[in-house]
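User: What would this chain look like folded?
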Amino acid sequence: MTVGGADVALRERAWLVVVLVMASACVAQAFGRFTWGVVLPGARDDLLDGSNTIAGLFGTLNVSAYLVGTLAVSWLASRLTLVGLVRMGLVISTSALGVAAIAPSGPVLGLALAAMGLGGAVIWIPAPAISARALPPARAGMAVGLIGSGIGIGILFAGQMSAYLERRSDRDDLWQTLYRIEFAIAVVVLVGAFVALRSHGDRPGAAGGFGGVGALRTVKGWIPVTVAYAAFGFAYILVIGFLVARLEDDSGFSSGEAATMFSIMGASTVVGGLSLGPLSDRFGRRVTLTTTFVLFGLCGLLVLTGRQPWVAVASVGVGLMFSGMPALIIAHVVDHTDVDTYGPAFSAATLAFGVTQMISPQIGGAMADALDSFTWVFVLSAVVSFIGAAFASRLP
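Assistant: Here's the prediction, encoded as structure tokens.
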């Protein structure tokens, strides 16, 4: 093979790795976590006796397991390679999707959602670094943004498939049909990860202190970036998790119309990381991240109008900011870590993110039941977003 041919083969191999990692992130986040926001009304009415509080509790189970997974990764990072972590997470997430697809009762579904959260963390934390290392350093920001695009594609798919299924049938278990389809896709991704992903000499990272805090403290501006990530974790899930329910219950949208708004949000997510990453290269992480927090809060408030085209505009904005904010935070951590410290450091930052995710859905569900409306849920999300903006503005 010629030198030019070898270069082409290496580039093709690198892009194969990026695509597989994108697909793995899709399984971890779009299927294992955010699909719950799409199927929540159907699952709530089918298995949970119509209770928003229980539905919120199930969301809390998912993110609580995500928190446990984050702690596990901070320990496993010194024992497994990043590719090994992704494979392990895919096994867990794929199995959980299979259980959700046939869950006969609420408790079984809750167990599946918890396993999805655990597997999601084990996949998500190493995924950006694998993608960034696959491409040249000058394109690392784009590589990280592509991971968010993979999630966005999955969210778009879930919303569109849900709307399609609603048009085709009025059965009560359509939400499980969506999980069955996602399970089949996850199996394909799992096989691809074991066949095509290779560590290529990568070694497990060094220990980073309890929960990775020691490694995180080496990151410049670690306090504001950690608090900002925590604020994002609390704020985004109130909007993503309850968007469909808000539009159906409070604004009179049909199931298909609400699912379409979720799909629009997902489509915007595809380009959020890719568009905001280059902007941060030009204007700086601090300015870009601060601006995205403010815009996310404003978009959440715009959903409350319940009118078109404002809900559609808000859905686009939510999708852009949703994928852009974590990409910017991850890029900051990647900029200030190396192969030994990235895993533990990002695990520690994700721990704070996981804690706020854990409490957010339950608070949102309880507020909705107590006030018989999702209005104050979205107002709370906006307030926390503005707090995140304040801390992001303190990044170096």
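The chain has a mean pLDDT of 84. If you want, I can go into more detail on any region.
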